[in-house]
Design a protein that fits this description.
Layout lengths: L1 E6 L3 H12 L3 E7 L3 H10 L2 E4 L2 E4 L1
Parallel strand pairs: 1-2
Antiparallel strand pairs: 3-4
Length: about 60
């Protein structure tokens, strides 16, 4: 199991979140970005749970 943290929620960051969330052997453990509304948007889209200012997969 590979654990991944994505830093940044721009164009490439969102692609990394999407791809990691689709892979069986990858666990997306955190998304970090100063723009909390963007982090929450991606968290909702990819079913992630909020943990402080970042998100972590349920």
């Amino acid at each position: 199991m590979i654990r991944v943290e994505v830093v940044g929620t721009g164009y490439m960051g969102e692609n990394h979140v999407r791809i990691c969330s689709e892979m069986e052997d990858v666990r997306l453990i955190e998304i970090s970005d100063p723009n909390s509304s963007r982090v929450k948007e991606l968290a909702a889209r990819y079913k992630l749970q909020e943990k402080k200012k970042s998100m972590i997969r349920k």
